[in-house]
Design goal:
- By secondary structure, the protein is of the alpha+beta class.
- The chain is built from four helices and five strands, in the order αααβββββα.
- It has a domain of 82 residues: HU Protein, Chain A, CATH 4.10.520.
- 36% of the residues lie in helices and 21% in strands.
- It has a three-stranded antiparallel beta sheet. A two-stranded antiparallel sheet has the order 3-4.
- The radius of gyration is 18 Å and the shape is elongated.
- This is Integration host factor subunit beta.
């Protein structure tokens, strides 16, 4: 699973002229390790992997995963249809499939629409 959503979270609102940095899982782990020096990096890696595995498993089971303040992951059913090969224009049968879907939460949408300098993020443990 790519972490495209962290682009939005860490870099603020996107425009057509600015894409932002693509954060990969190892960079997320590194950032969390920097912000939580009392934790071992290997433990953070295990936690991050477990979170993503649990989300993936829930989606594979058809469940919805809701993270308050962040957003909700779910799956959507796409019916079989006839598409077109863009190069040749030939009709192509596209099979039905399930696709992952993410809907940003209210707080996330509000954060993304604030001016850039207000989008400072700090990932700290609560407690």
């Amino acid at each position: 699973m790519r972490l495209d959503y962290y682009i939005l979270l860490l870099n603020g609102p996107l425009s057509l002229s600015r894409r932002g940095h693509l954060m990969i899982k190892s960079e997320l782990v590194q950032k969390l390790a920097e912000d939580n020096p009392h934790l071992f990096t290997r433990d953070i890696e295990r936690i991050v992997a477990t979170v993503f595995d649990e989300i993936s498993t829930a989606l594979a089971n058809g469940d919805r995963v809701e993270l308050r303040g962040f957003g909700a992951f779910s799956v959507k059913h796409r019916e079989a249809r006839i598409g077109r090969n863009p190069r040749t224009g030939e009709a192509v049968a596209i099979e039905e499939k399930w696709t992952p879907f993410f809907k940003a939460g209210k707080e996330m949408r509000e954060r993304l629409n604030k001016p850039q300098n207000e989008n400072v993020i700090s990932i700290k443990s609560q407690g």
